[in-house]
Amino acid sequence: MKAIVQDRYGPPEDVLRLREVDAPVIGDDEVLVRVRATSVHPDVWHAVTGRPYILRLMGAGVSRPKDPVPGMDVAGLVTAVGKDVTRFGPGGEVFGGTYTELQWRNGGAFAEYASVPEDALALKPDGVTFEEAAAVPTSGYIALLNLRCGEFIQPGQSVLVNGAGGGVGSIAVQLAKARGARVTGVDGTAKMEMIRRLGADHVIDYTREDFTRQAERYDLVFDVASNLSLMACRRVLKPGGTHVLIGHDHFGAAAGRVLGSVPRVLMYFALSPFVSQLKNPNPDASIPSVRDAMVVLEELFQAGKLTPVIDRTYPLEDVCEAMRYLQEERACGRIIITP
Ligand SMILES: NC(=O)c1ccc[n+]([C@@H]2O[C@H](COP(=O)([O-])OP(=O)(O)OC[C@H]3O[C@@H](n4cnc5c(N)ncnc54)[C@H](OP(=O)(O)O)[C@@H]3O)[C@@H](O)[C@H]2O)c1
Question: Given CB 3.0 to 4.6 Å as the disulfide criterion, which of 231, 232, 308, 332 pairs with 135?
Answer without folding.
Answer: 308
